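Case study: Ferrous iron transport protein A.
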Amino acid sequence: MLSGDRLIHAQVNFPYVIQSIETDDASMKDFLFTLGCFPGEEITILSILADNYIINVKDARYSIDSELAKTIQIK
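Here is what the predicted structure looks like once written out:
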């Protein structure tokens, strides 16, 4: 995986660091921020089920869809 890729292309059970949230949709960005998805935070995909990504951020598990996963830039 190259640096600066999107979460949607990440490997399962491998920790990444959030580089940025790339969207013009303020509500989508606000939602991700409420989950703790800030630049510099560690994020891990625990599993992918259909169009849903089970992620771990700050010792909590969340389910996000592929549209949200596309907005998270990782390194």
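For the exam, be able to explain this: The radius of gyration is 11 Å.
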